Amino acid sequence: MTQPRAGTLFVDHGDVLALLPMSECVDAMTEALRTLALGGALLPLRTVVRLPDGPNAFALMPAALREPSALGAKVITVFPGNDATPYDSHQGAVLLFDMEFGRLIAILDASTITALRTAAVTAVATRLLARPEARTLALLGAGVQAETHLESISLVRPIDEVRVWSRSGDRARRFAEKFGATGRRIVACPSAREAVDGADVVCTITSSREPVLLGDWIAPGTHVNAVGASLATSRELDSAAVAKSRLYVDRRESTLNEGGDFLVPKREGLIGDDHIVGEIGELLVDPPRAQGRRSPQEITLFKSLGLAIEDVAAARRIYDRAIATGAGKWLELGGLRDAHA
Q: Which of 34, 109, 154, 219 is the most exposed place for a label (fewest CB within 10 A)?
């Protein structure tokens, strides 16, 4: 038997960006979500350790995929207050193992992978659920995810107007100035309601634990992506917004255990488990196992929690490209025995 190559590939922020363009990340997320729907994934619920005296958390997210063949985990901290600092709110590493020997074959920057894959999954949902003629995008939040969501959604819909709102008006204005030269109209709005008014696609990408989007603001035909809240006790949408929408999720089990945007109105008796129409992956299989948008007037809602299969699928795509191009750095971490021992 040929001995495996010793060493572990280290892929930093810059190499992740170079090796996984957003268009390819959207393709990778489409494949991973389809595999999940077909039963080709092992995906336990994430383990979250809530740190004392605040909202900060440490999380472990393991997963295995049949197609693409990928085994790994994301180990990450979530510090929401970092929005006001030079540091990302999500920091850590994605660990990729091979399926033959169980070797740790790659360590990849989790902040960058999280930013890319989260926006790419939103793009998959938007492509499936938003009206084809959708042109106006509202971003509630002006941080890292606002940048990646602008890029990803522009790949799947002809966006020509962007409204951005942030609790920090300065951040929204800086975002509008930075991306205003891209050939589309970008407006920093003084309120979330003004940003949402008449928008075709709305993305909530904040660190808020309380609603920033109210149901009364959402016009018929809107598609909403609820992305920022990932704990059972946090939400970005009020109960009316969820109740009036046709709800899709990345994964039912995760939503029933972790999705505050869903669980709060459920506890209030406004909706039940059957309010979930389907998983996004169920729209991607042939034939589809769930029905998508039924009319131009429907309000559709995608609740994104983020899944470990997304991280390991992205890591696998990056690893394969790195091997092919010679990118990344190699580390010697052990694990390979002397062949003559």
A: 219
